[in-house]
Structure prediction request, 949 residues.
Amino acid sequence: MTRTQIIVRRFGERLVMRFPGLANSPTGRRAINYVKRHFRIGVESVGVTARGLDESHRGSDRQRLVLNLLADRKNVLRRNSGSRTDSQVNEVAPIRGGDFSIVLCCAFQDRHVCIRLLAEEIIATSDRIGLILCGSTEDDARLIEHLSSKSPQIGGVTCENTPLGRKWQTCVDVARRTSHAEAYGIIGSDDIPSAKLLRLIEGRVKEPMGNQRQAGLHAPMEWMAWDVGGQSETAPGLYKLNYCLDSQSQPLGAGRFYSRDALDECDWLLFDVKKSRNLDDMGFAQILHQGSSVQFYSVSEGPLVSLKGDWAQLNSLSMIFEATTVDAQEFSFAGANLIRESFASEAMQRLLRTGRVD
Amino acid sequence: MCGIGGLMRVDSSWSPEVCRDGLRRMGKSMKRRGPDAEGIAMFDNGGLLHRRLAIMDPTARSNQPMESSGWILSYNGEIYNFKSLRSELQGAFDFETTSDSEVLLAALEVWGIDKTISRIAGMFAFLAWNKRERALYAVRDHMGIKPLVFGRLEDGGIVFGSSVAAVREVDPDRWVTHDPGALGSFFTLGAPFTISTAFRGIERVPPAHIVRVDRDGSMKSRRYWSPRLRTDFSMEELVSITAEYGQADVPAALFMSGGVDSTFLACAIPDLDCFHLTSPEQKYAENAARIIDRKLVVVEPEFDSYRSDVAGVLGSHGEPLMSAGIPAAVSRAVSESGYKVAISANGADELFFGYPRTPMPEYEPPYLPFHETPSARWFRTQMAQIFRDSRNFDVPEISSSLPDTIELGMSLMLDFHLEGFPPSASYRWLELMTYVLHDLNPTLDAASMYHSLEVRVPFLDHRIVEGVLSWDASRLVTPCDGRKSPLKTHFRHRISPAFFQRPKLGFSIHGEQLEKISHEGPRALDSWRRAGRISVNTRSKFGDVPRDLAYLGSSCLAFDAWSSAHPGTGLVSGSGSDAAVSQPYPSTDAS
Prediction:
């Protein structure tokens, strides 16, 4: 997909979302037609669905993506049968506070500075947002206890770190069992969603746009990366990232918010419990299979920041820059100001001033 | 272009004669800034000084300070739109001269301070006593081209001046402590970039700020200008503004390197002599001057007095500057050739993407002419070329005051974001507000004024700056023309753009001349290392270490020249830097 096509597609998304009756200009028609070829359109959101596939998609990237994911899901379901409760779970601190609008699930090990920042941002954003943490070490457990003592919005468990898919699924299962919310988010252990994004999703979860049914998935298509490592080769600087080429329809893996309805429909199965990599595919496949609509978010609507620092990383920023499936753009000035406007916690504002987590 | 000073007392025990003596000492210190005349005007609790370099209406009737019924004015600089302002003010004010100074005085008289500031364009710093309000106003130009610093006296009085050295003359025993924050920033940029000057207690008036001092000594400052989006800004307007820069009643010359910027200026400003220092680009300069029909003066600069030039410039300026030597030699050559005014293309590279270091996030040309380097992709690359990474060296005496590179980067991102402009505008604005504001402008001002030469910089006119910042990167860098496309397009009908399809060299010194002075910096760095005054390591991969070491050597050399001229109590160790005076950047709304 060319840059122009991406722009046209994004323009089309905005156009049909916000001005469905006004999109009669040649540019608007062109944009809508382009989007229609690739996505099922609803006025409330941009939908992605297996049911929308037809003859015109034969051989397209889009068809490959959908069919591959669906095939993968069948395998996953077969493999997962009966294995979800295998993990030994140690309850550390329960989440308290009754009903939530959103509960975030975060599996982590170490990276405590990031988890603290995440917790502070959630507490500063709303008391209707909960956080379920799933750690693996004694230090992780102590951190969960400490954060839970600071706020009833935060609770968590520990379990084995591998396979990572099982750890993440355990976190989701704990969230299902111990909390009630309209939507559940998957947050990476070095990702911080902004108050602006959380409040936007919170609002849409409560009141879907127009009379349409709620989106099954709220997902950022763009995110920001911020290198806070003292000696790294990519600091200082802020970067805007999105998937491209074959992965261009894929929203960010960490930072997805599933509606309760969508989760119920797939029995809350979002991760392949035997895998430790490519964990993002299955949750998206569930949404594709259901034919649920997906609400996409850009960084300007509400940023999610991926912090890169002096800790072990599967994907360093340098590697991301080399990857052909991720488009990275320079975003320092606009990004810094977006962070200043979008994040609620003093900790994030302090980080913005110093550029360091320590 | 001149030197100005002002003293205001709050203590009644301070006699007018003491005040006048202080002003006289300041005037003596700034004699080279204004060799043509000196004037002092007293008001009820202070006085203003003016040392004049006579450019417009160079007769005694335009000497300053100038006085009207409501104001006393001491002003340094040039207002380039003064003729149109004069015609507007004609009915309301009886003009006695043809100078821009009197137009400024008339504007203050008729319009008051705010409207005057909103209408004038150029480079200026002025002090104006309002007789009715009994308040002193200190104003600095939009882009910080002209210097203006101030210090508090022991009794609460205040002193303003065009140079740190002049301010110190008022009470030499008061400002003797070096500011470690300012000196730390000097080693990473090549010039202090803090609010505080190199002497603790003497601060800069930030660019585009008005400071008001009341009779009781209380001060309020506010920013009067930030770039505004000008989607309607046209090339015709740019050329028209540039043409104003040729106005002078004394001989004026254009610094002509033979490159794009100076050729554009030669085309846009009529009837100017061109001045070229011998260089490999001489044939291009000769060719351009011949086609545009300009007289070209070619001079070989003299570097025998390089060290004494540096010492002299930094002595009269009062702060260390890394690159004063070459501009000083060039200014001397121009001045000795009989010119009082020179026009420079400073700022064009930063504004028009002349450097590949400036990222263009919104645009990537599909191809570029063969000699052009693609733009840097990341902010980090740009920053590494402007600043030296403090992780790679240490000056033990000011170790804790060397700016933290990461923290500096974050503050740059936050402070220089231009909302509503094309994304690339912020990256260009950053260049203008760091390297140009703190290094290029003071260096050029100090070096040229040391040789009593006024240097004008049309590309730093605030009207041009905000207009060109409003242009998208795709307008400034095109596949066919490469960088600075609008400037090349302007003279396309006279000189083929193919003439400029060559690697950029710029207005610099080349060959044997450079060889003569190129050993000075490394020698100074070696001497510092041996004496344990600096240690160098290469811990980070930020920037270009060999290049940074060359700059560090020049900084050491300049530091020695400056500290010899201004011996004080020495550097202050540890973290003694006062946060209030060592703030890295001017706040946007200081009060």
